[in-house]
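Shipment paperwork, digital attachment
Item: protein structure file
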Amino acid sequence: MIITRASAMTALRQALSDNAATVLLGPRQIGKTTLARAIADERDGSVYLDLELDADVRKLEDAASYLRSTAGRLTVIDEVHRAPHLFAELRSVIDERRRAGQRTGEFLLLGSASLDLVQQSAETLAGRVTYLELAPVGPLEAQGAAIPIDALWLRGGFPDSLLAGDDGASLRWRKNFTRSYLEREVPMFAPRMPATTIGRLWTMLAHGQGSLLNAARLGQALAVTAPMVGRYIDLLADLLLVRRLQPWSGNLGKRLVRSPKIYVRDAGLVHGLLDIATLD
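Attachment content:
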């Protein structure tokens, strides 16, 4: 079964037509690479680089020369957050191409961590970049693929989880997903933060899905300070795993001091963290 991400494809095509560079953000395994390859297949001569592969990293040892050699072709760079030095080179190449009349659809950059990537690109690519976030599969996309809404709610919108052979396989996929994030992504993006503690916090947030953030209570349960809880949540939000819903108030001053609500961003991950395997 194939889930058609038609709305995401349309948004990505529009972004590429608006600016020289597009940054596509989303957690791992959400479908960024599949979407990017589909877009690349539409354009003759597109170049795809994965910075988890040593061979592709070596191609960018002289990044300026290599990127200049791809003029006139869409260049897709996956895992771009692994090479922050590239952004300065990209700015130079984009400006050269602008002077030559090439102003849009030059680079598609994929990343799994929003804050660092947005900051890095904003510092050097201001006015040259469009940001898009790829969300989990939604109800309309599931309906288009004839997937029952109950299955989407239980398994969540990560394609591999949603399309698993049965509920048990889906739950195992989600548990392996959370484990890999704690063992790989947390040490990579925040080497000084204890992955075990962040995992416990992630589960506690799932238990309190949609409740007001009480950092002091969470900190007491985790034996850390409330500001440290805030930094842990910042990391989970940066990895696009949780969302802060800021309070609304007509008084901006009150809005800034009131507590937000915290949501784990995918229903399937909530159920995986809570070990809920079936609708029963």
